[in-house]
Design a protein that fits this description.
Layout (H helix, E strand, L loop, with lengths): L6 E4 L2 E9 L2 E6 L8 E4 H9 L3 E3 L17 H17 L7 H15 L3 H13 L43 H15 L7 H15 L11 H11 L2 H8 L2 H8 L17 E7 L4 E2 L6 E3 L2 E7 L5 E7 L5 H12 L3 H6 L17 E4 L1 H4 L5 H7 L2 E4 L9 H11 L31 H18 L19 H11 L9 H8 L2 E7 L2 E4 L2 E4 L1 H6 L13 E5 L6 E5 L8 E5 L11 H43 L8 H6 L1 H19 L27 H5 L4
Parallel strand pairs: 6-11, 11-12
Antiparallel strand pairs: 1-2, 1-5, 2-3, 3-4, 6-9, 7-8, 9-10, 13-14, 13-16, 14-15, 15-18, 16-17, 17-18
């Protein structure tokens, strides 16, 4: 179907349909400066289309239809004058044909006094550019060669009136120097200014052109003009920003996190921060510093699914505690802080499909237990890209905004607010439990009542539904693909616990220097001292809050575990946490290290004494009489007896009491022994329990 203003490509030329008259069409070549309307039959056009010699193409002048023209501008006045001049000609269909066009143009020329050449030019421009008034606009938008490089033998621009010299034309060698200094000093993240780059250019230019006078050196304006001409605005922004900062803070934001998830549980984001508040100890006598705050957020609904607040630094262990909270029922946790909730108020129970975290906490072999056991996909953000998990990052500021205006001890810009002011750390009032209670209430408020006015709503979310995290979560569970998996809380807890390599020894299973055993371990025969080679490459899960038990995995790749308890040899760690165990061992190692220094000093003194005594004895030893060796050895027993009698006599004389005292009666607890010897407990110590 042919339409007026359709553009076709016929060979190397393009034609525009100007009019349709029965079985004929009138078109014009829009690529020729001497073209006039031509008449072709529709049958011929259709045949060319079937032969694939005629194809539709894009109209290169279509932007003129929507081009805004300022009212009263010179372009608008010229356009209207041109259109008014040829409007009577366009009203007559004879203008399309050669036989009638000449007479019409001559008549209009005589009437207006305008030359026929101008009328023909305006008619051709009108037809070739779309047969609309804007087709007659002058080409001011092409004037000046915007964005094109200017070339001239003489220096371009306004001549100097005040500054000395005439300057030089920027040619290819100078442009090369411009680019070198700009790339080296300015178009990067080093922070140098453009005047500094220009001064480095002068150093380079002066060395290469010693005959040029200083007043004729290329100016700062010339290098600035080159910079804006050769470097696109987007490239200037990208190159001058640090690569990490550009990705995080500068680059355009064209996506949304919600578009990449299907429903609740599709992806959780986890991150940690140091809260902006100083706390007191439980007895409110000491300032204990700032707590660590972990938050786990569901991307689809913006629900805070779990959290951790404590004094431990961000690590895998604390991250696992936050994840364990996010995947299990929170009723008991809330009750511990005096908040009663129903499961419907915080329904985030189950294992998500994916977890997005920083490289630090979840990057390593320990997280493989969660991946393999429950099929959770672990996604790691690139380094220094906190914006990759912007939802949880934003929640830190949102949650802390709830308490900052009211709570003392909040971190401010400086420790001393003004001259004579008070250190905000001294204002600490809350304990860790108090702060946890406030944060728990803030999370419950956000989950149930916070209106997400900027939430990017999917098309199928009802317009009459209030966009709160709880409403979005419940709607997603009902109408979207739910990604949460229901698992045993005990199995989940064991899977999330950190793991460590353990070793078998005669004393039990060694884990962090403590020894553990269990009835399954004793029954396996792995601890018997029969000379067989013991099993290696064993792993055990441990709870950092409890040192009394570990969970030994007897088979690699299996979820079966044995609960092992501390042996009597490691009884010093009973009732303690793993953190306390590590601290105790560190203190013991320090004490042993200090004692070994003293031991080394004493050992050196001992060795010196032995050496000196030996040398003195050798000097004091008389020469033995020449007699057979048998005679010398034969008297050893008698000599020993004689020496012993002399020692006894000396000891008896030295221990005589100064005055006699009455003897006291002896009370025997288990009866007086017949021979007066000490009781024998060998049977009790080494008897067989069986």
């Amino acid at each position: 179907m042919l339409r007026i203003n359709d553009v076709f490509r016929f060979g190397k030329e393009r034609y525009r349909i100007l009019a349709l008259a029965g079985q004929h069409a009138i078109w014009i070549n829009i690529d020729s400066d001497k073209a006039w309307p031509e008449v072709v039959t529709r049958v011929q056009i259709e045949q060319w289309i079937f032969d694939e010699t005629l194809r539709r193409t894009e109209d290169s002048h279509q932007e003129l239809a929507s081009l805004p023209v300022e009212h009263g501008s010179k372009a608008q006045i010229i356009r209207d004058q041109r259109y008014e001049l040829i409007a009577p000609l366009l009203a007559d269909e004879e203008v399309f044909y050669r036989s009638g066009r000449g007479q019409l143009v001559q008549s209009r020329s005589d009437e207006t006094g305008k030359p026929r050449k101008s009328l023909y030019k305006h008619l051709r421009q009108y037809w070739q550019r779309g047969a609309m008034p804007n087709a007659l606009l002058p080409d001011y938008r092409k004037s000046g060669g915007k964005g094109q490089k200017k070339s001239s033998r003489k220096k371009l621009g306004r001549p100097r009136k005040i500054s000395p010299g005439t300057g030089v034309t920027v040619d290819s060698p100078i442009e090369k120097m411009f680019r070198l200094v700009l790339d080296r000093y300015y178009v990067n993240d080093k922070g140098y200014s453009l005047p500094y780059a220009h001064r480095r250019f002068i150093d380079m230019f002066e060395a290469a052109n010693p005959t040029v006078r200083p007043e004729d050196y290329p100016t700062l304006d010339q290098i600035r003009y080159f910079y804006h001409r050769e470097y696109q605005n987007a490239d200037r922004i990208r190159l001058k920003a640090n690569k990490i900062s550009y990705q995080k803070d500068v680059r355009p934001l064209i996506g949304t996190a919600t578009a990449g998830v299907l429903g609740p549980g599709s992806r959780y984001e986890i991150d940690a921060t140091i809260a902006d508040i100083y706390l007191l100890s439980a007895d409110r006598q000491r300032v204990i510093g700032r707590p660590t705050l972990y938050v786990v957020v569901d991307v689809f609904s913006r629900m805070v699914t779990g959290f951790y607040i404590g004094l431990e630094n961000p690590s895998y262990v604390t991250a696992m505690r936050a994840l364990a909270t996010s995947m299990s029922d929170k009723s008991e946790l809330c009750a511990r802080y005096g908040v009663e909730i129903t499961p419907e108020q915080w329904p985030t129970v189950g294992v998500p499909d994916a977890i997005l975290a920083d490289r630090g906490e979840l990057l390593g072999y320990q997280i493989e237990s969660l991946e393999n056991a429950f099929g959770v996909r672990i996604e790691i953000t690139p380094p220094y890209r906190g914006d990759a998990k912007g939802i949880v990052e934003r929640y830190f500021r949102t949650l802390q905004a709830e308490f900052k205006p009211f709570v003392p001890g909040v971190v401010t810009a400086t420790k001393i607010r003004k001259q004579g002011g008070k250190d905000y750390r001294l204002d600490a009032t809350l304990t860790l439990d108090d702060f946890t209670r406030i944060m728990l209430a803030s999370i419950l408020h956000r989950n149930q009542y916070a209106v997400l006015s900027k939430y990017d709503r999917d098309p199928d979310i009802p317009n009459d539904m209030a966009l709160t995290p709880l409403n979005i979560w419940n709607w997603g569970i009902q109408y979207r693909t739910g990604r949460l998996k229901n698992v045993s809380e005990e199995a989940l807890r064991i899977a999330l616990l950190p793991r460590n390599k353990v070793y078998l020894s005669d004393l039990g299973v060694s884990c962090f220097g403590a020894y553990y055993t269990s009835k399954e371990l004793l029954g396996s025969g792995w601890l018997h001292r029969n000379g067989d080679r013991r099993i290696t490459d064993l792993q055990a899960a441990y709870d950092p809050a409890v040192a009394d038990h570990i969970y030994l995995f007897p088979e690699k790749g299996s979820s079966e575990y044995w609960v092992c308890s501390l042996t009597d040899r490691s009884r010093q760690y009973r009732g303690k946490s793993m953190w306390e165990l590590w601290v105790s061992q560190e203190e013991q190692r320090k004490a042993i290290s200090a004692a070994k220094v003293a031991e080394t000093t004493s050992k050196r003194d001992l060795e010196s004494l032995v050496s000196k005594t030996l040398k003195d004895a050798e000097r004091s030893r008389p020469a033995l009489p020449k007699q057979p060796k048998a005679e010398t050895i034969r008297g050893i027993r008698d000599n020993r007896r004689q020496e012993r009698d002399e020692q006894r006599a000396e000891q008896t004389k030295a221990r005589q009491p100064a005055s006699s005292k009455p003897k006291s009666d002896v009370t025997y607890l288990h009866g007086k022994p017949d021979d007066g010897a000490f009781p024998d407990f060998l049977d009790e110590l080494f008897g067989d329990d069986e």
